[in-house]
Amino acid sequence: MRTQSRRSPRTLFAVAAVGTLLAPLAACSGAGGSGGSDGGGSLNVLMVNNPQMVQLQKLTAAHFTKDTGIKVNFTVLPENDVRDKISQDFANQAGQYDVATLSNYEVPIYAKNGWLHSLDSYVEQDPDFDQDDILPPMTRALTAEDGKLYGEPFYGESSFLMYRKDVLEKEGLTMPDKPTWKQVADLAAEVDGAESGMKGICLRGLPGWGEVMAPLTTVVNTFGGTWFDEDWTARLDSKEFKEATRFYVDLVREHGEAGAAQSGYAECLNNMTQGKTAMWYDATAGAGSLEADGSPVKGRIGYVPAPVEKTDSSGWLYTWAWGIQKASKNTGDAWKFISWASGKDYEKLVGEKVGWSDVPAGKRASTYDIPQYREEAAAFADVTRDAIANAKPEDPGVQPRPAPGIQFVGIPEFTDLGTKVSQEISSAIAGRQSVDSALKKAQKLAEAVAEKYEGS
Questions:
Q1: What's the pLDDT tens digit per position in 133-180?
Q2: How far apart are CA 155 and CA 26, in angstroms?
Q3: Are 22 and 413 a contacting pair, CB within 8 Å?
C-alpha cells in the first residue's frame, strides 16, 4: 500500500494549491515543548462555527480561563471561510493564530509543509491527557508521514445509514444488520411515499468536495472503483466508477429528496428530522441531532453500518482537530487549551452543563463508558464507534491507492479537483447531463492532476 511518501514535493509545497481549500478538564501545567507561558497570557484560536465549537466558546472563559488565567480570543467562521483563512495564515506562517481547527485531510499536508508544531513532546509530558484513550483511527489520521502527531481530535465521525424503524415496520420491511447498497435501493423504492410527502432516501447532491463527493466516493470505493490507481492513473472513466455513480444518481433521482442537486448535510438532516425522508446515508454526527430532546423523530430512528458491495466496510473517517501553528509564540499555552478542549473532563463538563447528546464524541474510548452518555446515545453510540474503528483510510477499496483517504484523496489538489468534479455530478443529479458526460469531463480533470504525480 503506497502512502503519502509518493507525493510530489513541488505539489506538497504549493501554497496556491492549499490556499484553495474549501467544503464537527482541569488545565494541564508543565507541558513540554518550546514557547508558551505559565498562565495569564493570551491565545488566538481560529475555528469553524459548528455547534460543538460554538458551545466550547461559551464554556471557555468560565472554566479554562478561570483555571489557567489564559484568555482565549476566538475567531469563528463558516467552514469554507475558515479553511481559506487558516490556509492563508498557516501557509505564510504569519502567526496571527496560535491554534486552528483542521481536519484529517489538512493535517498531514500542513505537517509535510512544515506549518504545524509537533505535539509529541506535549503528550509525553501530560499523562493526564491520556493519548492512549484517543481512538486509534483518529491518532493515525492525525499522524504525518514522519511518524509525529500534529493534531488532537475535538470530535470524530464516520458515516452510516439512518432509517425510520416505525415506517419500515409499518410496511412489513426489515433493515438488514449490514445492508448492501442494492438492498437499500430496494427498500427506498418500497418506502417512497409510505407517508404523505415522504421520499425513500436522502443523499447529498450539493456541489462541493465535502458535500456530494464525500458520500459518493464511499459508494465508489465499495463498488470497486477509485479516483487513481497506485500508479496515479486516473480512473473516473472506469466501469466501476461509472457503475457507482450511475447507481447513486439514479437512486437519488428516483427515490430521493426534492431539490437533491442543492441538498447537502444540513438539508438532509432537516428532511430526516421533519419526517420527509425514510432513510438517510451520511455522517454519524447527525444522530445526536436526531435523538436530541425536542426532535420529532427521537427514538424512531435505527442505525446500521454504511452499506457495502465489494468491501467489508465503507464508512468514512473525519475529525475536526486542533493544530498549533509552527510560528506560534504561545505553544505551551496552546497545548494547555488543546489538552482541556480535547480532554476527558471537557466531555463531562459538556454533559453536565449542556447535555449528554451534545458531547463532542467519536474521539475517546472512555466516552463510551460514561453511563449518562451511553443512556442518551444508546441508539447510535456502538454503531458509531464500530464505524470509526472499521474505517480504513489507507485501504478503503479493492485496490492499492497512491494516497490515503476514504471520502477524499489526500493530496492538496483534491479540494479543487473534487469541487470541479462535484459540479459535474450535481449537474447529472439535476438532469442537465448524463453520468457518462459528467464523468468524461471529470476524467480529464483528474488526468491533469495525475500528470503531476506520475513517476514520482
A1: 999 999 999 999 999 999 999 999 999 999 999 999 999 999 999 999
A2: 19
A3: no
The three-state secondary structure class of 83 is helix
- Return d(Cα 290, Cα 233) in angstroms, integer: 41
Cα gap 347→189, rounded to integer Å: 40
pLDDT band of residue 94 (cuts 50, 70, 90) is very high
Relative to beta strand 152-157, strand 159-164 is unpaired
Model pTM score: 0.87
Q: Average pLDDT of 33-44?
A: 65
pLDDT tens digits for range 344-403:
999 999 999 988 888 999 999 999 999 999 999 999 999 999 999 999 999 999 999 999
- 13 burial via Cβ count (<10 Å: 0-12, 13-18, 19+): middle
Question: Edge-to-edge strand order for the sheet containing 42-48?
Answer: 71-77, 42-48, 99-103, 318-324, 152-157
CB-based burial of residue 262 (10 Å sphere; 0-12 exposed, 13-18 middle, 19+ buried)? middle
Rounded (10°) CA dihedral 77, 82, 84, 85: 80
* Gap between the Cα atoms of 309 and 185, Å rounded: 12
Pairing of strands 301-305, 99-103: unpaired
pLDDT in tens, 321-338: 999 999 999 999 999 999
CA distances, 26 to each of 73, 111, 341, 348 (Å): 19, 28, 10, 11
Give the chain's mean pLDDT: 91
- CB-based burial of residue 61 (10 Å sphere; 0-12 exposed, 13-18 middle, 19+ buried)? exposed
Q: Where are the beta strands (DSSP E) in 131-176?
A: 152-157, 159-164
- Distance CA(151)–CA(207), nearest Å, equals 28
Q: 205, exposed or middle or buried, with CB in 10 Å at 0-12, 13-18, 19+?
A: buried
Helices (H), 29-164: 51-60, 66-68, 79-91, 106-112, 120-124, 136-141
CA–CA–CA angle 73, 77, 83 (5° rounding): 105
Residue 400 identity (one-letter amino acid): P
In this structure, the number of other CB atoms found within 10 A of the CB of residue 371 comes to 8
**383 and 284 in contact (C-beta within 8 Å)?**
yes
How many CA atoms lie within 13 Å of 16's alpha carbon, on the beta-carbon side?
2
